[in-house]
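Lab notebook, bench 4. The sequencing result for the construct came back, and we need a structural model before the next group meeting so we can plan mutations. Quick request posted to the team channel:

Model the 3D structure of this chain.
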Amino acid sequence: MSTQSDIREFLASRRARITPRQAGLPAYGGNRRVPGLRREEVAMLAGVSVDYYVRLERGHLAGASEEVLDAVAGALQLDEAERAHLYDLARAVARRPARRTKRTRGPIPQSVLRVLDSMTGSPAFVRNGRLDILAVNRLGRALYSPLFTEGAPRPVNIARFQFLDPHGRDFFPDWEQSVHTTVSLLRTEAGRAPGDSDLTELIGELVTRSEEFRTVWAKHNVRLHHTGRKGFRHPVVGEITLDFDAMELPAQPGLTLTAYSAEPHTPAHDALQLLAAWAATEDASTTADPDRTGSR
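Done. Here's the predicted structure in token form:
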């Protein structure tokens, strides 16, 4: 899809979810032809002309000032992630990339790998915006062991496993929430990097092969994913719910280090210790594994 199409559908979907009452507008009687706000109502709330807002919603964000984008974001009651996504789309349409390119990246720095290795009590990994796992510590590999099966495409991709692998649904017990998180992260990355051919190919594959992905993708939801809780149904330790913190790596733009933890003296903490014991009995060849050292 083009960036202009993404803009049009994103703004229309945000407009459709807000009622006049939520926007502080009088709701007159009679049938409304749209489920949410009309374009002219958004234009009034944003302080721009109707013709100008219609042009914006048709995908013509290039040249729109920060003040206008902020006004539109306020009128549509966008949250932090949605506001950032709107700015990403505006930057993308202004750049108009001539062609899609592969984003090449060198190996994960040794200093980052040392940090991963030092986190012996926490599963941790480094991913890119496409949700490829590019580096992982021993406990992280043990936690995500269903993804690292022999013969699985490398680098391991969380979204591909979740939607296309027959074990994906079993591994994520809170399926609906997990699905929406994954798709929202990919939609966010698509706004940041519309010219990334690897990302485009992945999204095309998922849209083609997964009806569930296709349905959620059409919602145009985006999100920031910095902290929270995530559940797993692990084949060895059973169901486990862990806290996570995701930290972007300033020296490696586009990469995020995610670490899981559990409160001491809880079932989740006991499960992590069991997972660590199991990992210690497995093949300790991760040091030479290209998935651990990173290749992008």
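The chain has 14 helices and five strands.
Will bring this to the meeting.
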